[in-house]
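Sequence only, no structure available. Ideas?
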Amino acid sequence: MELTEGERKELEETAKRGEPGYVRRKALALLNLADGRGISEVGRIFRVSRDSLYEWRKRYLGEGIGGLRVRAGRGRKGRANLEEVERYARQSPRNFGVGRTRWTLRLLGDVVPSLKGFSSPGVRKALRRAGYRYKRGQPWVHSPDGRYEEKKGLWTKR
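Reply:
I predicted one. Tokens follow.
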């Protein structure tokens, strides 16, 4: 594999600082090919097939560093309906016949139709894809006001 000086510098920079990590790996493999190592040897070093290396080389020469990224639409499609997850998460569990005031991961997995059968970590991933971050509820609010205890008076007791 023949590289121009600019291409070599680009691959070296990507191999050092490229994001995500799989792009760094592909850049390193291509640099090894450019240094004269055989395709089978590089495949063994990086534990990838020869076909993958040929594809990485073809895509790099045709598209540059962008060709080393995974293209959109690849991989298994998510089973969770993100609009449905959002619709449920924005409402109280009581609206769905559950006698609770806050959602738990397990509860969302039991109530949301497209999350049926999901584990708690799976529900968390679906929430992240929908743009949510799970945070446990706090039993009480702590005020940063130094005079909070004085101001709250006798209307609450512990």
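Residues 82-129 form one domain.
Hope that gets you unstuck.
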